[in-house]
Amino acid sequence: xxxxxxxxxxxxxxxxxxxxxxxxxxxxxxxxxxxxxxxxxxxxxxxxxxxxxxxxxxxxxxxxxxxxxxxxxxxxxxxxxxxxxxxxxxxxxxxxxxxxxxxxxxxxxxxxxxxxxxxxxxxxxxxxxxxxxxxxxxxxxxxxxxxxxxxxxxxxxxxxxxxxxxxxxxxxxxxxxxxxxxxxxxxxxxxxxxxxxxxxxxxxxxxxxxxxxxxxxxxxxxxxxxxxxxxxxxxxxxxxxxxxxxxxxxxxxxxxxxxxxxxxxxxxxxxxxxxxxxxxxxxxxxxxxxxxxxxxxxxxxxxxxxxxxxxxxxxxxxxxxxxxxxxxxxxxxxxxxxxxxxxxxxxxxxxxxxx
Amino acid sequence: xxxxxxxxxxxxxxxxxxxxxxxxxxxxxxxxxxxxxxxxxxxxxxxxxxxxxxxxxxxxxxxxxxxxxxxxxxxxxxxxxxxxxxxxxxxxxxxxxxxxxxxxxxxxxxxxxxxxxxxxxxxxxxxxxxxxxxxxxxxxxxxxxxxxxxxxxxxxxxxxxxxxxxxxxxxxxxxxxxxxxxxxxxxxxxxxxxxxxxxxxxxxxxxxxxxxxxxxxxxxxxxxxxxxxxxxxxxxxxxxxxxxxxxxxxxxxxxxxxxxxxxxxxxxxxxxxxxxxxxxxxxxxxxxxxxxxxxxxxxxxxxxxxxxxxxxxxxxxxxxxxxxxxxxxxxxxxxxxxxxxxxxxxxxxxxxxxxxxxxxxx
Lengths: 355, 362
Prior knowledge:
The complex is a heterodimer of chains A (355) and B (362). Chain A is an alpha/beta fold and 355 residues long. The model of chain A has no long low-confidence stretch (mean pLDDT 85). Chain B is 71% helix and 0% strand. The longest helix of chain B is centred in the N-terminal third of the chain and has 43 residues. Chain B is globular, with a radius of gyration of 20 Å. Chains A and B meet through α1 and α7 of A and α5 and α11 of B.
């Protein structure tokens, strides 16, 4: 009996093999980046990048089409390729600034529903149009990999706060936090991170420039590994590399209008100081100046968020974890008038390898 | 008891693997959303509560088994007579036959949604039922072997949740006890489907060498499962924001989407494929239990019962073609499990206790 069963199973397995649709790598077009732009009234321009593998390097092929809904755009592109397009390997999705001002959620929804797309997918907003940016040729590995590495590098080593599809959706759905995304621009044959765009819901309402990104990151992520240049009073510059940053946010007072206290403890090492020896007196003055800068810059940023009624830091969610029976609606009613106190504590640990 | 020959028995320590592999099943892929809907970020407390209650029920089960010399079907008949007792046991046949059916269908749905949309339900369930038939035909010891290996082999999956830590905000779990006790209790009740599995001990007990010693292993299994579920719930609650979690059908699979390994782009495919190993003991043990009860009830050969039950299960899968129906079957199973374990077992213990006082023996 068991012999017969084994035989039956064997036959079934053999017969059932190949019952599902196969996707052979050479016979499909793998999208590596997609972009969405506004194209006139109620029209959307979709652009995709397909890597074309050649010996030694990867060329890019871009396809563009205009349609009325987000879903159609990518579907219509199927008409333009000889091999089926698959979306499983999209590295990055870009949104033109104009489109981002009107809301990008309809163009994210399909990524959310598609089981083949990972949630590490990067999203970014483009100064100009996504089409223009995607049509360039960057790097040797193709545009998709280039752009995702660009963002990855800037998130891990520089001042771009952590973002990806998962974090965007997490903050989009959160009651007490608003999403933000990297802001990039094409400069000749390069792409540059020029800041961070801030959303209310799924619409862009504000932009943070490069100079403020450092301060935004230390408050938003509580972490930064970037190098920052501090300008001292006497026109001297000192370049400081962050070793560790610790951000503490505490609340006091009633839960509808709490006092917010943001404390930033930063530890760094000196990377560059070319005005004589780095004495302890200099060190103390650098620390003081840096603290002062963190305080004023961060305060200006947070004040701006309050005026625009956005909460990219997530004060609402943090407060919800401190107060029982917290109501986000009551909190945001008074959000713009909440007193926020910022303190900073900078420690320059070592001066580098030179005495 | 001891109607089971020693060469067919397994050592008491195997109880740990049998119970744990039966408990961890398809529910793990999606239980978080359901309990978080009721108890929000306090859902992990519900998991602990459900675990604690499982321990209590398990104590009752072991007490009952000792009163009945390890034969639960016989206990039903001695307490309620041949016919009523028989009908009660027949309900259990149904209950254990629904488990493989529900587990397999839910799994096939996952495969269809996540990997192969054009996979046909009947092809896959036929192949799998044949495999399970083959395993269960080998007898209880083979089933235990499957339980053992298919708990150990996929256990490495626990480490994949390491990647999730990067995106977890543990402050989302605070403040603790922000929900009413009734909400937390209700979520604990919803947790029962995921906790189910330890009730199988009622039927495989005679197959354990020195049955009584297995109690500590059974409790260890329930404890380990509870801790694993609690950990997973905490991670899920920290990883998703509350509204976001409500939009996920399979939060566990969604968490794998963020795993990034140099050699694999989409880890959830590995996870889903591995999950087949995890559900295999569920199906096999479910089939084994229901056919075992049949054997005791009708004095027929167990293989015969197995064949009939598996065939019925298979034809039932043909008939299901909709997510709502699978959900419905899941709900039925959840209810049945709850009433069986939390209502029927304590009642039965009470009745046994009274009968024992009156008659002197059961």
